[in-house]
Amino acid sequence: MGLFSDILKKLDAGNVKRFSKGGARTGGALELRQTASTGGMATTELLIRLELIMGQASGLPLMDYANEMVHLSHPLQLFIFSETSEISNLSYEHAHEFLSVASTALVLMEQKQYERWLSGVKQAFASGDPESASYQIKNYLDYTSERDTRTAYLSDITYTLEKLVLSIHKTELPIVAAELVTENKLMSYTDDEALYLPLSISHFDNYEDNNRLYKVLTFQLLGQIHCKTALALDTLSDGIREYGDDFLTIFSTIETLRIDQYIKAEFPGLWNDIVLLHKKAKVVYPLNIFDNADIHTVETSLQLTKSLLESKLDLPELIYQSTFQLALMAHVQNVTIKQESKRKAPLILNPTTDVHDELLGTGDPKTADRGYLRALKDNAGDSVLNSPPPGWIPGSSDEAEVAQHITKHNEKGVFYYREWDTSLKSYRKDWCRLKETVDEDLVEDVVIEDPEALRHAENRIRKTFDQLINDQKFMRGQNDGDEIDIDAWVSARSGKSKDADDYQNLYIRNNTNNRDVAIMFAVDLSGSTSGWKNTMIKQSTWLLCKTLARMGDQYAVYGFSGAGRNDCRVYPVKRFEENYTKSVKSRIFSMKPDQYTRMGVAIRHLSKLLGKTSAKTRILFVLTDGRPDDVDSYRGQYGVEDTRLALNEAKALSLKPFVLTFDKEGMDYLPYMLGSNRYQLITDISQLPIQISTIYKQLTT
Amino acid sequence: MTTANIIENSKYYIKDEPYYLPTANEVEIFNTALEENIPVLLKGPTGCGKTRFMEYMSWYTKRPLITVSCHDDLTTADLVGRYLIQNDTTVWQDGPLTTAVRNGCICYLDEIVEARKDTTVVIHPLCDDRRILPIEKLGQLLQAPPEFCLAMSYNPGYQSAVKDLKPSTRQRFISIDFSYPAADVEAKIVNQEAGLDMAVCERLVKLAEMTRNLVGNGLDEGASTRLLVHAAKLINRGFEPKMACRCGIADVLTDDNETVTLLHEMIETLF
Ligand SMILES: Nc1ncnc2c1ncn2[C@@H]1O[C@H](COP(=O)(O)OP(=O)(O)O)[C@@H](O)[C@H]1O
Ligand SMILES: [Mg+2]
After folding, report:
1. Mutate to test the pocket of ligand 1, among B48, B58, B228, B233 (most ligand atoms within 8 A of CB)
2. What share of chain A is helix, strand, coil (3-state, %, to 5)?
3. Where are the domains of chain B?
4. Is residue B233 less than 8 Å (CB to CB) from chain A?
5. How far is A320 from A219, CA to CA, in rounded Å?
């Protein structure tokens, strides 16, 4: 009996296995594969890294944490490592507390929410309140729901504010989180190079007004720059020396009122917002204070300040009044005097500015929440990424990473693209760094091994293409056209019934140029394409380029490869605006197998280029030998999902993607990635040139 | 074969003076180009007065204006002419370009890069010293009279490298720059066109400038003078300014939600 049931079990198991294999085409096998690799690190690797941060003999249940973390995606795992090591620098206890909830918390939260959560924790540390930090770590659930509906967060409004500022100021002024809130006062200030605003505002009892306050603060700071407040520096410091801090206090209010005048004149809509805030805060606004002076310069404010010192007039308390600081003004003046073109680090230091400063110092237009937190994350993440897992030493390559950030966004031929993180269900902004690289050492004399076979293939391609051209050339019997269709005319005349309709369609329309096609060939140059595959790819590309010219279609060829998200590469072989020349030929034959296949970013970049052409039919043709795969977790479900999203984005640009693959397992994921009829498997690689031309014909007609 | 030699006067002449406010010395340049028989290229974004300028110049010089809007299906025959069949015989029908050459009109090819390159080559012999229009089907070489003038418009902004003018075409022309007018001029135009209060017009222009600063940051092109005129007309009809700007400007410029929201925010700061 026992034996029998055992056999039954085995049979069952066999069946299950076979079923799941059969289900491959419907996507079932895909799921299986994905659970086998979530794209993240495995438990052992996680454990080693946790021990590196928390210490080996910590007595903590690190294995449990590793087991929890194994279900997360690679980026999230890295995020936990970097946050843990950062918190552990502040307090080991808290780092442990963080670890014990991190895996659960991060799954529940959106990126924005957990960034808020952790910045809340760090703020608590910075203001010397470890208890509150610990409370916040444990009560991460507070951040998952929008329980607090009145608070406005800087991170939510940064994009809008930055663009609004750009539209007025013409140059970008990054919006950065200000120093921490002290004594319940909102801090906002500017050094003419960035606008510093509070991380969150909950001053009013509803979200609309708090949001409004953000806008008003921003315009006040813009106003400061525009109204040249910084010119007051000398007089102001004299005044403070003479009258004490009262002088600064009064000046601050007066200057705010002066900037109000500017806003009122230039941005009446925003002035309405200010008036609303006045009402809410029950401010008695001194309307006529600037009535007497004709030109309101900062001098006017200073004079008013002096006269008010004596009369002790009551000034309103304005919630949106920014923080005026001599140090900042001095900085502004220095910059103006020296006409420095390079940006200086901001003067105000806050406890968490180490990385922050360097970022700002480089003109990196990134912002508080989006930039600062991400910068920490990026740096920590990269240091993990770039070193081989076993011998990993935390922070070893930090400096190099920061240096890389410094050149970010200014480099020529470098582009940043987002990437879809399927475990987060959201995009990671600017995640991949892609560089267009032109290979310098080109093959000069191209030697073709089997010219006879190629000539045959070339003839076949030509024939296929000639058909295409001829198919199109003359459309007879049209009701309008360039020539008269004599045949139609004769047949109409000789027709028995003199049907008027026959006389309508007597033209030949020459449609040669109605073909309006642009095609982008994206060629996978990953290491796995070496050898025979590479030779075939090169020869097919060459034949295609040679013959495509006669069709008058626009076409481009780019190779892609890379190693890790910071080193994605595309190799222009032939650009759209180029003609087929000898150097294109030598670039084709210089294509060589490179490293990995991070497909999403390549598709995004090449879609963008293709999207710029104006053809009616635009085809993105991807030639690859396998599934998306890259060193840093870009594999399994993660890679497939990101590639799928990238292809969807291409479709949204009204491009037609098509994938031709050598990968026999391609059927497992291609249907899911692309939808039907958008991929083909090529089994006999020697047929590649002819296959491509046939597919090309199918796609373009 | 019959050809119409004289066009109906009423059809192509502009009788009433169109409102056109010069922004620089474009009127003088155009007149000189006319006298010297050099074709003219009007370069600038859409809706900044190119068409209006041509109408004005047509009225000013008392020459009829023939406008052709170019598109990618435009054939050479559409420009030059073709045989039609009527009552069992063929009749030649002049295309607009031929009509313009025969009658000494101003021929204005709007958005020239939209036309295919093989279509635009027919203008080459018209644009150099020869000033002839070859009509292949008729076996004729038509000599352009001195009154004939060719002008075309071209928006260098959004076209890609692929859709650019060929140097061989480009270098036959005198180019007049039609970028957005200065703020005060533009406000005056809007004021005149819509009859709206000057102060509001100035604010509209300010909004337009803000959108123009965002080109490349979510917008392909900023708000044109035409859009301002539209919004101004809405306001004049009693629509709330914010509403008018949203319908007349913001929502027209883009479909991207994030950018639309941003444009609405801009409007909120001004009205
Ligand atoms: N200089 C100008 N003088 C008068 N109206 C102008 C001027 N510039 C622009 N406009 C207004 O803008 C509108 C659009 O101009 P239009 O000539 O059609 O633009 P386009 O450059 O696209 O041909 C016109 O209808 C007119 O109301
Ligand atoms: Mg026009």
Report:
1. B48
2. 55, 10, 30
3. 3-177, 183-270
4. no
5. 10
Q: Are B266 and B210 in contact (CB under 8 A)?
A: yes
Considering only alpha carbons, which residue of chain B is nearest residue A158? B262
Nearest CA to ligand 1 atom 12: B226
From the CA of B52, how far away is ligand 2's center (Å)?
Answer: 8
Residue B2 to residue A2: CA distance in whole angstroms: 105
Compare CB distances from A167 to B75, B159, B266 and report the shortest one's residue.
Answer: B266
Cα–Cα distance, A390 to A469 (Å, whole number): 59
Residues A365 and A358: their CA atoms lie apart, in Å, by 12
For A267-322, the pLDDT digits (tens) are 999 999 999 999 998 888 887 777 655 667 888 888 888 888 877 667 888 889 99
Contacts of A147 (CB under 8 A, 6+ apart): none
The answer to whether the Cβ–Cβ distance between B162 and A484 falls below 8 Å is no
Res A343 pLDDT > 70: no
Please give the domain boundaries of chain A with CATH numbers for all domains: 2-144 (no CATH), 153-332 (no CATH), 387-472+516-701 (3.40.50.410), 474-511 (no CATH)
Q: pLDDT: is A264 or A683 the higher one?
A: A264
Query: Stretch B129-145: mean pLDDT, rounded?
Result: 91
- The CATH superfamily of B3-177 is P-loop containing nucleotide triphosphate hydrolases (3.40.50.300)
According to DSSP, the residues that pair with A102 across neighbouring strands are: none
- Specify the pLDDT at position B180: 92
B205 neighbourhood in chain A, CB within 8 Å: none
Q: What is the pLDDT of residues B220-244, one digit of tens each?
A: 789 999 999 999 999 999 999 999 9
Q: Rounded to 10 degrees, what is the CA torsion of B167, A583, A442, A557? A: 80
Q: Which residues line ligand 1 (CB under 6 A)?
A: B 19-21, 23, 46-52, 181, 189, 193, 225-226, 229
Note the pTM of the prediction, 2 decimals: 0.61
Specify the range with the lowest mean pLDDT, choosing from A66-70, A228-232, A388-392, B100-104. Answer: A388-392
Q: Name every chain A residue with its beta carbon within 8 A of the beta carbon of B267.
A: 269
Helix (H, G, I), strand (E, B) or coil at A511: coil
Tokens standing for residue A199: 């991380």
Report phi then psi at B28, rounded to 5.
-65, -45
Pair A503, A480: CB distance under 8 Å = no
Quick one: tokens of A499? Answer: 């049907």
pLDDT at B10: 64
Per DSSP, helices labelled H in A549-597 are 582-589
Q: What is the pLDDT of residues B155-172, one digit of tens each?
A: 886 544 445 677 788 888
Q: Do A576 and B214 touch (CB under 8 A)?
A: no
Q: Catalogue the E-assigned strands of A160-251.
A: 175-177, 189-190, 195-197, 200-201
Mean pLDDT of all residues in B215-221: 80
Cβ–Cβ gap B262/A168 under 8 Å: no
pLDDT digits (tens, 9 = 90+) for A523-532: 888 887 777 7
| Ligand 2 mean position, distance from CA A433 (Å) | 41
Residue A366 CA to chain centroid, in angstroms? 12
pLDDT, position A328:
82
Which span out of A120-124, A149-153, A514-518, B30-34 was modeled with the highest average pLDDT? B30-34
Q: Whose CA is nearest to atom 8 of ligand 1?
A: B49
Record the tokens describing residue A164, joined without a space: 């609004």
What gap in Å lies between CA B61 and CA B149, rounded to an integer? Answer: 11
